[in-house]
Specification:
One of its GO terms (molecular function) is alpha-amylase activity. Keywords: Hydrolase, Signal. The protein is of the alpha/beta class. The protein folds into 2 domains: 85 residues, Sandwich (Immunoglobulin-like), CATH 2.60.40; 250 residues, Rossmann fold (3-Layer(aba) Sandwich). Helices cover 28% and strands 25% of the residues. It is globular and about 70 Å long.
Protein backbone atom coordinates (compact mmCIF):
# COMPACT_ATOMS: atom_id res chain seq x y z
CA UNK A 1 0.00 0.00 0.00
CA UNK A 2 1.48 3.38 -0.95
CA UNK A 3 2.34 5.72 1.87
CA UNK A 4 0.33 8.97 1.99
CA UNK A 5 2.24 12.23 1.99
CA UNK A 6 2.46 13.86 5.46
CA UNK A 7 0.25 16.80 4.44
CA UNK A 8 -2.46 14.46 3.09
CA UNK A 9 -2.42 12.44 6.33
CA UNK A 10 -2.81 15.69 8.33
CA UNK A 11 -5.80 16.81 6.25
CA UNK A 12 -7.42 13.40 6.67
CA UNK A 13 -7.01 13.51 10.44
CA UNK A 14 -8.50 17.03 10.58
CA UNK A 15 -11.45 15.90 8.47
CA UNK A 16 -12.11 12.92 10.72
CA UNK A 17 -11.98 15.15 13.83
CA UNK A 18 -14.39 17.59 12.24
CA UNK A 19 -16.82 14.79 11.45
CA UNK A 20 -16.72 13.65 15.08
CA UNK A 21 -17.53 17.20 16.25
CA UNK A 22 -20.42 17.52 13.80
CA UNK A 23 -21.78 14.16 14.90
CA UNK A 24 -21.65 15.23 18.53
CA UNK A 25 -23.47 18.46 17.72
CA UNK A 26 -26.18 16.57 15.87
CA UNK A 27 -27.01 14.43 18.92
CA UNK A 28 -29.75 15.68 21.30
CA UNK A 29 -28.32 17.43 24.31
CA UNK A 30 -28.64 15.84 27.72
CA UNK A 31 -31.09 18.56 28.72
CA UNK A 32 -33.33 17.81 25.72
CA UNK A 33 -33.81 14.17 26.71
CA UNK A 34 -34.17 14.57 30.45
CA UNK A 35 -36.56 11.89 31.72
CA UNK A 36 -39.91 12.76 33.22
CA UNK A 37 -40.10 12.00 36.92
CA UNK A 38 -43.57 11.68 38.42
CA UNK A 39 -44.14 12.27 42.14
CA UNK A 40 -47.50 11.15 43.49
CA UNK A 41 -48.47 12.65 46.84
CA UNK A 42 -50.89 10.25 48.49
CA UNK A 43 -51.09 8.22 51.69
CA UNK A 44 -52.21 4.76 50.58
CA UNK A 45 -52.37 3.41 54.11
CA UNK A 46 -50.39 0.51 55.55
CA UNK A 47 -49.90 -2.45 53.22
CA UNK A 48 -51.18 -0.74 50.06
CA UNK A 49 -49.20 0.38 47.05
CA UNK A 50 -49.54 2.59 44.00
CA UNK A 51 -49.17 1.59 40.38
CA UNK A 52 -49.18 3.62 37.22
CA UNK A 53 -50.76 2.74 33.88
CA UNK A 54 -50.41 4.71 30.69
CA UNK A 55 -50.70 5.13 26.96
CA UNK A 56 -47.14 4.35 25.79
CA UNK A 57 -44.52 1.70 26.51
CA UNK A 58 -43.19 0.75 28.95
CA UNK A 59 -46.61 1.68 30.42
CA UNK A 60 -49.84 0.07 29.34
CA UNK A 61 -53.54 0.42 30.18
CA UNK A 62 -53.91 -3.27 31.04
CA UNK A 63 -51.20 -3.87 33.64
CA UNK A 64 -49.82 -1.45 36.20
CA UNK A 65 -46.16 -0.60 36.75
CA UNK A 66 -45.10 -0.41 40.39
CA UNK A 67 -44.18 2.99 41.81
CA UNK A 68 -41.51 3.44 44.47
CA UNK A 69 -42.50 4.69 47.90
CA UNK A 70 -40.37 7.41 49.46
CA UNK A 71 -40.60 9.31 52.72
CA UNK A 72 -43.48 11.66 53.24
CA UNK A 73 -46.01 9.41 51.49
CA UNK A 74 -44.62 10.26 48.06
CA UNK A 75 -44.58 7.61 45.34
CA UNK A 76 -42.14 8.04 42.45
CA UNK A 77 -41.83 6.66 38.93
CA UNK A 78 -39.24 7.81 36.38
CA UNK A 79 -40.01 7.42 32.69
CA UNK A 80 -37.26 6.40 30.27
CA UNK A 81 -35.80 9.37 28.41
CA UNK A 82 -37.40 8.15 25.21
CA UNK A 83 -40.90 8.59 26.71
CA UNK A 84 -41.69 12.29 26.41
CA UNK A 85 -45.43 12.47 25.58
CA UNK A 86 -47.96 10.16 27.19
CA UNK A 87 -51.07 9.91 29.34
CA UNK A 88 -51.21 8.12 32.64
CA UNK A 89 -53.46 7.26 35.53
CA UNK A 90 -52.90 5.87 39.02
CA UNK A 91 -54.28 2.85 40.85
CA UNK A 92 -54.22 1.58 44.42
CA UNK A 93 -53.00 -2.03 44.44
CA UNK A 94 -53.48 -1.97 40.67
CA UNK A 95 -57.24 -2.35 41.15
CA UNK A 96 -58.80 0.98 42.17
CA UNK A 97 -58.46 3.80 39.65
CA UNK A 98 -57.96 7.44 40.59
CA UNK A 99 -60.98 9.69 40.05
CA UNK A 100 -61.12 12.09 37.11
CA UNK A 101 -59.47 12.23 33.73
CA UNK A 102 -56.03 11.03 32.62
CA UNK A 103 -52.96 13.09 33.41
CA UNK A 104 -51.32 14.28 30.20
CA UNK A 105 -47.59 14.80 29.76
CA UNK A 106 -46.17 16.60 26.72
CA UNK A 107 -42.68 17.60 25.62
CA UNK A 108 -43.25 21.00 27.22
CA UNK A 109 -44.35 19.62 30.61
CA UNK A 110 -42.00 20.03 33.58
CA UNK A 111 -39.49 17.21 33.93
CA UNK A 112 -40.39 16.89 37.62
CA UNK A 113 -44.16 16.48 37.94
CA UNK A 114 -46.17 16.40 41.17
CA UNK A 115 -49.75 15.15 41.25
CA UNK A 116 -52.27 14.83 44.08
CA UNK A 117 -54.89 12.23 43.19
CA UNK A 118 -57.94 10.94 45.00
CA UNK A 119 -59.79 7.66 44.62
CA UNK A 120 -63.17 8.30 46.22
CA UNK A 121 -66.41 9.74 44.90
CA UNK A 122 -66.43 13.17 43.27
CA UNK A 123 -68.43 14.64 46.12
CA UNK A 124 -67.34 17.81 47.88
CA UNK A 125 -68.58 18.91 51.27
CA UNK A 126 -69.83 22.14 52.76
CA UNK A 127 -68.54 24.19 55.70
CA UNK A 128 -69.71 27.50 57.10
CA UNK A 129 -68.53 30.43 59.18
CA UNK A 130 -71.25 32.37 60.97
CA UNK A 131 -71.13 36.12 61.63
CA UNK A 132 -67.71 36.81 60.17
CA UNK A 133 -66.73 40.38 61.08
CA UNK A 134 -65.41 42.94 58.62
CA UNK A 135 -63.44 45.76 60.29
CA UNK A 136 -63.30 47.57 56.93
CA UNK A 137 -67.11 47.70 56.69
CA UNK A 138 -67.96 47.42 60.39
CA UNK A 139 -70.52 44.67 59.79
CA UNK A 140 -70.98 40.91 59.98
CA UNK A 141 -71.92 38.32 57.38
CA UNK A 142 -72.05 34.56 56.96
CA UNK A 143 -69.49 32.69 54.86
CA UNK A 144 -70.23 29.34 53.20
CA UNK A 145 -67.49 27.14 51.76
CA UNK A 146 -67.34 24.30 49.29
CA UNK A 147 -64.42 21.95 50.02
CA UNK A 148 -63.57 19.77 47.00
CA UNK A 149 -63.87 15.96 46.89
CA UNK A 150 -60.28 15.11 47.81
CA UNK A 151 -60.06 17.60 50.67
CA UNK A 152 -60.66 14.99 53.40
CA UNK A 153 -58.97 12.13 51.53
CA UNK A 154 -55.63 13.62 50.46
CA UNK A 155 -54.18 15.76 53.23
CA UNK A 156 -51.12 16.60 51.11
CA UNK A 157 -53.09 18.59 48.56
CA UNK A 158 -53.65 22.33 48.42
CA UNK A 159 -56.25 24.06 46.29
CA UNK A 160 -56.98 27.21 44.32
CA UNK A 161 -59.67 29.45 45.79
CA UNK A 162 -62.68 31.02 44.10
CA UNK A 163 -64.28 33.90 46.02
CA UNK A 164 -67.93 34.28 45.01
CA UNK A 165 -70.41 37.02 45.87
CA UNK A 166 -74.07 36.62 46.90
CA UNK A 167 -73.11 33.51 48.82
CA UNK A 168 -76.66 32.66 49.90
CA UNK A 169 -77.61 32.10 46.24
CA UNK A 170 -74.85 29.61 45.39
CA UNK A 171 -75.61 26.32 47.14
CA UNK A 172 -78.99 26.28 48.86
CA UNK A 173 -82.42 26.89 47.33
CA UNK A 174 -83.83 27.70 50.77
CA UNK A 175 -81.60 30.76 51.12
CA UNK A 176 -81.36 31.69 47.41
CA UNK A 177 -83.21 34.58 45.82
CA UNK A 178 -86.55 33.35 44.51
CA UNK A 179 -85.75 29.85 45.74
CA UNK A 180 -83.37 29.20 42.81
CA UNK A 181 -79.71 28.43 43.53
CA UNK A 182 -76.65 28.42 41.25
CA UNK A 183 -75.97 24.72 42.02
CA UNK A 184 -72.26 25.45 42.41
CA UNK A 185 -71.55 22.30 44.41
CA UNK A 186 -73.42 19.98 42.04
CA UNK A 187 -71.74 21.55 39.02
CA UNK A 188 -68.24 21.33 40.47
CA UNK A 189 -68.77 17.74 41.60
CA UNK A 190 -69.78 16.78 38.07
CA UNK A 191 -66.97 18.64 36.31
CA UNK A 192 -64.32 17.37 38.76
CA UNK A 193 -65.57 13.83 38.31
CA UNK A 194 -65.34 14.23 34.54
CA UNK A 195 -61.85 15.68 34.90
CA UNK A 196 -62.65 18.93 33.10
CA UNK A 197 -61.82 21.40 35.92
CA UNK A 198 -59.35 21.60 38.77
CA UNK A 199 -60.54 20.93 42.26
CA UNK A 200 -61.07 24.25 43.99
CA UNK A 201 -62.26 25.71 47.27
CA UNK A 202 -65.21 28.06 46.84
CA UNK A 203 -65.73 30.82 49.41
CA UNK A 204 -69.30 32.10 49.17
CA UNK A 205 -69.63 35.53 50.76
CA UNK A 206 -73.18 36.40 51.83
CA UNK A 207 -74.38 39.83 50.86
CA UNK A 208 -75.82 42.31 53.34
CA UNK A 209 -78.37 45.12 53.31
CA UNK A 210 -75.51 47.27 51.97
CA UNK A 211 -75.07 45.10 48.86
CA UNK A 212 -75.52 47.92 46.33
CA UNK A 213 -72.96 50.10 48.05
CA UNK A 214 -70.44 47.31 48.65
CA UNK A 215 -70.60 45.94 45.10
CA UNK A 216 -70.18 49.22 43.17
CA UNK A 217 -66.89 50.99 42.39
CA UNK A 218 -68.26 54.49 41.84
CA UNK A 219 -71.17 56.68 42.91
CA UNK A 220 -74.17 56.48 40.58
CA UNK A 221 -76.14 59.76 40.38
CA UNK A 222 -79.42 57.89 40.89
CA UNK A 223 -78.49 54.97 43.16
CA UNK A 224 -75.47 56.15 45.14
CA UNK A 225 -73.07 53.35 46.11
CA UNK A 226 -69.34 53.42 45.48
CA UNK A 227 -67.97 51.41 48.42
CA UNK A 228 -66.45 48.54 46.43
CA UNK A 229 -62.87 49.27 47.44
CA UNK A 230 -63.68 48.88 51.13
CA UNK A 231 -65.48 45.60 50.39
CA UNK A 232 -62.52 44.33 48.35
CA UNK A 233 -60.19 45.42 51.15
CA UNK A 234 -62.29 43.28 53.50
CA UNK A 235 -61.79 40.24 51.28
CA UNK A 236 -58.09 40.86 50.65
CA UNK A 237 -57.03 41.99 54.12
CA UNK A 238 -59.34 40.03 56.43
CA UNK A 239 -61.21 37.15 54.79
CA UNK A 240 -58.47 35.88 52.46
CA UNK A 241 -55.81 35.68 55.24
CA UNK A 242 -58.31 33.80 57.41
CA UNK A 243 -59.10 31.30 54.65
CA UNK A 244 -55.40 30.79 53.89
CA UNK A 245 -54.63 30.23 57.58
CA UNK A 246 -57.43 27.75 58.21
CA UNK A 247 -57.71 25.80 54.96
CA UNK A 248 -55.20 24.16 52.62
CA UNK A 249 -55.03 26.80 49.92
CA UNK A 250 -52.71 27.75 47.08
CA UNK A 251 -52.01 31.44 47.54
CA UNK A 252 -50.39 32.51 44.26
CA UNK A 253 -52.18 35.04 42.06
CA UNK A 254 -52.84 32.40 39.39
CA UNK A 255 -54.63 30.29 42.00
CA UNK A 256 -56.91 33.04 43.34
CA UNK A 257 -60.13 33.89 41.49
CA UNK A 258 -63.37 35.81 41.92
CA UNK A 259 -66.82 35.42 40.39
CA UNK A 260 -70.21 37.08 40.62
CA UNK A 261 -73.28 38.13 38.69
CA UNK A 262 -75.12 41.39 38.08
CA UNK A 263 -73.51 43.97 40.40
CA UNK A 264 -71.33 41.08 41.61
CA UNK A 265 -70.16 40.62 38.02
CA UNK A 266 -69.27 44.31 37.75
CA UNK A 267 -67.43 44.02 41.06
CA UNK A 268 -65.50 40.94 39.93
CA UNK A 269 -64.32 42.62 36.73
CA UNK A 270 -63.36 45.70 38.74
CA UNK A 271 -61.35 43.52 41.14
CA UNK A 272 -59.60 41.73 38.27
CA UNK A 273 -58.72 45.06 36.69
CA UNK A 274 -57.60 47.01 39.76
CA UNK A 275 -56.15 44.13 41.81
CA UNK A 276 -54.55 41.99 39.15
CA UNK A 277 -51.71 40.99 41.48
CA UNK A 278 -54.31 39.39 43.79
CA UNK A 279 -56.73 37.74 41.34
CA UNK A 280 -55.45 35.71 38.42
CA UNK A 281 -58.90 35.19 36.94
CA UNK A 282 -62.40 36.62 37.30
CA UNK A 283 -65.83 35.51 36.16
CA UNK A 284 -68.29 38.29 35.39
CA UNK A 285 -71.80 37.02 34.62
CA UNK A 286 -74.54 39.38 33.40
CA UNK A 287 -72.46 42.25 34.77
CA UNK A 288 -74.07 45.61 35.52
CA UNK A 289 -71.70 47.57 33.30
CA UNK A 290 -74.46 50.20 32.97
CA UNK A 291 -73.66 51.44 36.50
CA UNK A 292 -72.84 55.16 36.75
CA UNK A 293 -73.16 55.74 32.99
CA UNK A 294 -70.73 52.89 32.23
CA UNK A 295 -68.01 54.70 34.16
CA UNK A 296 -65.88 51.59 34.63
CA UNK A 297 -66.01 50.75 30.92
CA UNK A 298 -64.95 54.29 30.05
CA UNK A 299 -62.02 53.92 32.44
CA UNK A 300 -60.91 50.76 30.66
CA UNK A 301 -61.36 52.41 27.25
CA UNK A 302 -59.10 55.27 28.32
CA UNK A 303 -56.37 52.87 29.45
CA UNK A 304 -53.67 51.46 27.19
CA UNK A 305 -52.20 47.99 27.71
CA UNK A 306 -53.20 44.84 29.56
CA UNK A 307 -53.57 44.67 33.31
CA UNK A 308 -53.00 40.93 33.48
CA UNK A 309 -55.17 38.03 34.55
CA UNK A 310 -57.97 36.18 32.74
CA UNK A 311 -61.45 37.61 32.28
CA UNK A 312 -64.69 35.76 31.57
CA UNK A 313 -67.84 37.78 30.81
CA UNK A 314 -71.26 36.92 29.49
CA UNK A 315 -74.76 38.25 28.98
CA UNK A 316 -78.13 36.93 27.87
CA UNK A 317 -80.43 38.14 25.15
CA UNK A 318 -83.36 38.96 27.44
CA UNK A 319 -82.78 42.42 28.92
CA UNK A 320 -79.43 41.37 30.33
CA UNK A 321 -77.03 44.14 29.34
CA UNK A 322 -75.63 42.41 26.26
CA UNK A 323 -74.79 45.70 24.51
CA UNK A 324 -72.90 47.10 27.51
CA UNK A 325 -71.07 43.79 27.97
CA UNK A 326 -69.98 43.77 24.32
CA UNK A 327 -68.66 47.31 24.73
CA UNK A 328 -66.61 46.27 27.75
CA UNK A 329 -65.29 43.26 25.80
CA UNK A 330 -64.20 45.55 22.97
CA UNK A 331 -62.39 47.80 25.44
CA UNK A 332 -60.49 44.79 26.76
CA UNK A 333 -59.58 43.62 23.27
CA UNK A 334 -58.31 47.11 22.44
CA UNK A 335 -56.08 46.92 25.52
CA UNK A 336 -54.41 43.79 24.20
CA UNK A 337 -56.42 40.90 25.60
CA UNK A 338 -56.86 37.91 23.29
CA UNK A 339 -60.22 36.25 22.78
CA UNK A 340 -60.13 32.59 23.82
CA UNK A 341 -56.81 32.99 25.63
CA UNK A 342 -57.04 35.50 28.48
CA UNK A 343 -60.51 36.79 27.56
CA UNK A 344 -63.74 34.88 26.98
CA UNK A 345 -67.03 36.51 26.04
CA UNK A 346 -70.25 34.49 25.79
CA UNK A 347 -73.59 35.69 24.43
CA UNK A 348 -76.53 33.53 25.49
CA UNK A 349 -79.54 34.38 23.26
CA UNK A 350 -82.02 32.72 25.62
CA UNK A 351 -80.38 33.92 28.82
CA UNK A 352 -82.05 36.21 31.34
CA UNK A 353 -80.90 38.16 34.37
CA UNK A 354 -81.58 35.42 36.92
CA UNK A 355 -80.12 32.56 38.89
CA UNK A 356 -81.38 29.83 36.59
CA UNK A 357 -79.49 31.32 33.61
CA UNK A 358 -76.33 31.70 35.68
CA UNK A 359 -76.58 28.12 36.93
CA UNK A 360 -77.00 26.85 33.36
CA UNK A 361 -73.96 28.77 32.08
CA UNK A 362 -71.77 28.15 35.13
CA UNK A 363 -69.70 25.28 33.63
CA UNK A 364 -68.33 27.62 30.95
CA UNK A 365 -66.51 30.11 33.23
CA UNK A 366 -65.42 27.30 35.56
CA UNK A 367 -63.74 25.43 32.72
CA UNK A 368 -62.15 28.66 31.44
CA UNK A 369 -60.81 29.77 34.84
CA UNK A 370 -59.92 26.31 36.21
CA UNK A 371 -58.41 24.36 33.31
CA UNK A 372 -57.50 20.87 34.39
CA UNK A 373 -54.02 21.00 32.82
CA UNK A 374 -52.88 23.06 35.81
CA UNK A 375 -53.27 19.98 38.05
CA UNK A 376 -49.78 19.03 36.88
CA UNK A 377 -47.35 21.50 38.40
CA UNK A 378 -43.81 21.74 39.70
CA UNK A 379 -43.11 21.81 43.43
Amino acid sequence: MPVQPKRTRLYSAMLIALLFVLAAWSQPSAAAVQPVKIHVHYDTGWGNSLTIRGSAAPLSWTTGTAMTWTSGNVWVWEAPSTLQSFEFKLLINDTKWSTGSNYKVTTTSPRSIHVYPFFGAAQGRMASIANFFSPQLNNYRNIILYLPPSYSENAAKRYPVMYMHDGQNLFNAQTAFGGVEWQVDETLNRLIGQGTVRETIVVGIYNTANRMSEYTPSVDPQYGGGNANAYLDFIQQTLKPYINANYRTLTATQDTMMMGSSLGGLLSCYAGWTRNTVYGGVGCMSSSFWWDGEEFTRTVEAHQGKKGGRFYMDAGGNNDGATQTARFRDAMLADGYTSGSDLMHVYDPSGSHNESSWARRLPVPLEFLLPVRLEIRTQ
